[in-house]
Amino acid sequence: MAAEGGIFTFAPAIAVLPFVSFLIALSAGRYMPKKGAFAGIAATGGSLLLSLLMVAQVASGHAHHMELYTWVGGEGVPFELTFGILLDQLSTLMLVIVSTIAFLVHVFSLGYMNDEGEPGLPRYYAELGLFTASMLAFVFSDNILMAFMFFELVGLCSYLLIGFWFRRSGPPSAAKKAFLVTRFGDYFFLIGVVGIFATFGTGMFGGPGVEESFPVLAEEAMSAMAAGEAMPEAVTTFFGLSPGAWFGVLGLLVLGGVMGKSAQFPFHTWLPDAMEGPTPVSALIHAATMVAAGVYLVARMYGFYALLPTLLAIIAFVGGFTALFAATMGVVKDEIKQVLAYSTISQYGYIMLGLGGGGYVAGVFHLTTHAFFKALLFLGAGSVIIAMHHNEDMWEMGGLKDRMPVTYYAFLSGSLALAGIVPFSGFWSKDEVLYETLVHGLGGSPILLGAYLMGIVAVFFTGFYTFRMVLLTFHGDPRSDLAEDPEPVRWNVKIPLAILGTLAAVVGVINLVPVHAVVGAVPEFLHDWLFHGPETLNGAHYEELTEQFAGYSAGAIPGLGGLGTLFASAGVSLAVALAGSALALGLYRGPDPAEHTEKLGALKTVLYNNYYQDEYQVWLAQDLTEGTVAGTAKRFDDGVVDGLVNRVSDVSLVSGYFLRRVQTGIVSNYAALITLGLVVLLVAFGIMGGWFGGVFA
Amino acid sequence: MAVPVQYYLVLSAAIFCIGLFGILTRRNALMFLMSVELMLNAANINFVAFSFQHGNLTGQVFSLFTMALAAAEVAVGIGIVLVLYRNFADVDVTKATTLRW
Amino acid sequence: MMIEALIGLCLLGAGVVMFTPDRYAAKVAFGWSLLPLALSGLMLLNFDGTGNALLGGTLAFEEQFTWITLGPYDLSWHVGLDGISMPLVALSTLLTSLAILSAWTPITKRQNQFYGLVLLLEASLVGVFAALDFFLYFVFWEAVLIPMYFLVGIWGGARRKYAAIKFFVYTNIASLVLFIGFFGLVFGLGDSISSLDLPEIAQALRAGELGSLAGGLIGPELLALSAFVAMFIGFGVKVPIVPFHTWLPDAHVEAPTPISVLLAGVLLKMGTYALLRFNFTMLPEVARSLAVPIAALAVISVIYGALLALGQSDLKRVVAYSSVSSMGYVILGLVAYTSYGLGGATFQMVSHGLISGLMFACVGVIYNVTHTREIGDMAGIAERMPLTVGAFVAGAFAYAGLPLMAGFAAEFFIFVGAFQSTVIAGNGMAVMTALAMFGIVIVAGYLLWAMQRSLFGPFEFDGDYDVTRAARHDVVPLVVLIIVIIALGTFPDDTFFRMITDAVGPLVDGGPAEAAIGSGGGSS
């Protein structure tokens, strides 16, 4: 495959460039101007350019797969483990997103880290480079093992970056939590990976020139079972389960990793704590790397999930529930980054909802728009935080609108997108997610309607907390001296904000579904893009699969028809978003807004404490596992196992203590013993030899 | 004329038992040594008696060896007794019990 | 003559260093230890063995001549390397050099004797991995104990005598048990063998030549079973397998750090290597029939060892117990009888040797500076010794199975191999594997926990010592180990794994229930 490579020959460089910047920053960063930032900027810029070239190449109809090298192979092993690159519509799109945001984050870091005079900058840029490299490599992985490996490296880098300020006590703890919670998810993921290899003998996702891939094998096995034929040779199921059931188990296991990384309930607890890291890192983690990795994986192996209706329903429900659950928590938070953290959890819930609801394109679309507007919001928050001298409490802010207009308008653009207000990008993608779920729910999978309902309720809360955040931060009168006189930010902050602000507003044009439905001339770029992927990896194929195996078909609201349903869905979600935003406007408008959270009563306490999710998880990890179980194990080991060993030695010591009493030191006693022994021996020999004439015989 | 060999054996056994009795009951190191000599000589009597009985000189040669050994043993033994006396101001073997655990 | 040269070099070095004045001993010892290291590197490059040493493979650097004739048995000097032992020999020489370098700071008294004993230890270790005659093997096996006893007993910590004696007695009793077990087999084979040559014995056993003992009282099956159990216990102590592990934390904690490096890095591998060579190669049917208890022991070792590590407050104890956990994976991989399982187990021996060596070396460097290993006694030392802490973090993640480092490669091979194994009916091994894999969560838990409390946060230190950067020669071993670990994890095939799978291949094919992919259970 590599021979016909052309520009694809340079594909590995997409990940290698940031890796080189990691090496440079690590080894020589302290001697360089800006402590290695320029190396990172150049590398991510190069990656971005290459990614765009790849997109252009793929657009000309050449999805590409290349094998890099064989990790393990040869005669001795039943199947090879390889590293390779898969460049198709999905991965190139994601490469562009990741490298764009990484590039902007690097630039922004000049303002956020260098200008603030942080120590340890070479380490920062090195870790950032490694982070980007890992994520890019994860994105273009051609098999699930390679994906897992870089998935883990992404986890490592987020650990390092969240814990960047290791001299404080908070960040190391948050970093540990992030790694452990996602590791817990990855435990299941790893079992899933191992299981996939054991089941199919390959972990390939597919793509041009790939002979065997596990989604295709799974599909063949399912079709064969449905037709009552024998399973394909290459597929082995375990525990005597039918292919459907066993693949479901595998899918669930992999989903564990997805939920961990994408912070889906109940693995979401690490993400708000991860705000301890530098804000540019938060932007990177939330928009394009760590958290995105989970849902990207679902999209990457959608051909597998599409076979399993139960799994799709679980994904949809987890997503819908997380969207709602996290949105309610975001309503009461006081710190700007906390609000954004919960909004991230919630938005990834939507992406999961879209994927689970049969909306492959919708999910990827929301992943794309969210990447831009969430990066924007975080960088905007970073700008505010610079201005506020690292005070993040929104109640100390206010009135920043006039003092930092660039930040304000960019932030507003992102907020409108987040809230889902037409025509900002978030509206189009969120609407499509909800719409796809709705129509599939109506069309024969009523269970999805429950997930849809949670999603639509969450829209209300999203609108509410978004505008609460905007109003508290930028509007009204300044509520502190810092807000009165914020520190100005420089070009390196403003330019990324401006770029992302524009993108967040307009990136929705890549898939204007409702517009396309009316005016056919307006194309659905993303839809077409993803539907023209390589065989078995494109949206059309996934649609067939969901229809054939999961029974997903598009329904409509009775009496409205297809088009009517489309607009009804869009109208409802827009109305709900506006309602939420309006409520926030009503409550927090004015120069000096009041805290209304008191009115929530006991609910407020519950929300403030995040439904006590942290408490039970910390209890599980710390009190139960570390305290009780490990403590018991230690006591058991010291007392019983080692105790037994020591008792054995005690027994020999004690018996020695008594036996040595025989050694009195008195010669006469020894002589007597010798005599006695001799007599006994003589008698014994005598009896044995029959000297006593058979008396004893 | 010839004394039957049994008589010698009984004599030897008697002397051996006297020596053994001495070892078991006496506390004086010198008496110990003398008792050991008695036992050795009991063995010598056996050697000579059997040698005579079998018409073979090996036993007599052996008894010569034993005598030489006994002489050496007495030399060493008396040396030990002297040291014992020097260290414990006594030749009572039951008092020298420090060479144990 | 390469192996003889290697052993001879170490012995000669031991002699030379013993008589070097204390002042120069450290440097002479390090310089000398580079010779065997270079030689083993040369051997690695010229390695031309194929197949399994015991099952008729072609050996590299083989030498054989009769040494002593004892009754019906010829005892011979028979050494040679295959794909299993070659990596372990390389590991031994590398770790010895690095251990000597990391001893420069902490060892201040009787240096010439210390380094002499270390080189003596190296000679015995190489001998253990290279020997192919039981008599020779056992001589080296026991010879390891002697320098180790003195190294722990003289240069150790406060309770060094207790630890040294416990280590010595425990492993010696184990040697007795395995000796009895092995000789049960030898006598059971009767006339079908004429020497204690391990390949001969292994092939005779696999050919089913085992007879009865005690006039038919103990039949071949019972004999094989009891010999297997005896050898499993005997070697299991060295591994160590729970519940025979309690000598390990004591020995580790009391041993001086360079010795801990060797103890965890190489000595434990003697146990797993022997299990592979003796139990799993010679008596595969018994191993398969005992797969359930063995796999259960492996899982218990992994989880229980990890939980114990979680419960410790002494950094060295944390690492020591985590060795118990990691070695459990090796047992799991061995019992799987698949190429990935056996190969992964062997790869894990090397990888764990490097990683635990790295961790102990890091703890040692921290101890050199702070004179404490208690997690509660220090906080935030990352600020003062960034390089060491960086190495510690790298080591911890390697331990936790971070991809592209050796630990992940080894553990992944074991998991894949064990998952698809059919030695337990009804995919029982898949369940066992899934259970054992939970170890990767706990291991991350206790290492991150320990790091967070002792390395990060605001700087705090209860002690009179000036906490400052470590000496350069302390850091060099850490860096070297990290590089090797990453190289092994990124290119497992090009380093050792292909060599290893080649050597374990005959074990997979020879068994009654071939566990290749596609022949697993389940519906069809």
UniProtKB/TrEMBL annotation, chain A:
Residues 79-125 form the NADH-Ubiquinone oxidoreductase (complex I) chain 5 N-terminal domain. It holds the Pfam family Proton_antipo_M. It is a multi-pass membrane protein. The keyword Membrane applies. InterPro entries: NADHpl_OxRdtase_5_subgr (IPR018393), ND/Mrp_TM (IPR001750), NU5C-like (IPR003945), Proton_antipo_N (IPR001516). GO terms for molecular function: NADH dehydrogenase (ubiquinone) activity; NADH dehydrogenase activity. Keywords: Membrane, Transmembrane, Transmembrane helix. One of its GO terms (biological process) is electron transport coupled proton transport. The keyword Ribonucleoprotein does not apply. Coiled coil: none annotated. It is found in: Membrane. This is NADH-quinone oxidoreductase subunit L. It comes from Haloglomus irregulare.
From TrEMBL, chain B:
The chain crosses the membrane at residues 6-24, 31-52, 64-85. InterPro entries: NADH_UbQ_OxRdtase_chain4L/K, NUOK/Mnh_C1-like. GO terms for molecular function: oxidoreductase activity, acting on NAD(P)H. It is an enzyme of class 1 (oxidoreductase). Keywords: Membrane, Oxidoreductase, Transmembrane, Transmembrane helix, Transport. PANTHER family: NADH-UBIQUINONE OXIDOREDUCTASE CHAIN 4L, NADH-UBIQUINONE OXIDOREDUCTASE SUBUNIT ND4L. This is NADH-quinone oxidoreductase subunit NuoK. It comes from Haloglomus irregulare. The lineage of its organism: Archaea, Methanobacteriati, Methanobacteriota, Stenosarchaea group, Halobacteria.
TrEMBL record, chain C:
It comes from the Archaea. One of its GO terms (biological process) is electron transport coupled proton transport. The chain crosses the membrane at residues 84-107, 114-132, 138-155, 167-189, 222-247, 259-278, 290-311, 318-337, 349-369, 389-416, 428-449, 475-492. Residues 131-433 form the NADH:quinone oxidoreductase/Mrp antiporter transmembrane domain. It is found in: Membrane. One of its GO terms (molecular function) is NADH dehydrogenase activity. Coiled coil: none annotated. Keywords: Membrane, NAD, Translocase, Transmembrane, Transmembrane helix. It is a multi-pass membrane protein. This is Oxidoreductase. The lineage of its organism: Archaea, Methanobacteriati, Methanobacteriota, Stenosarchaea group, Halobacteria.
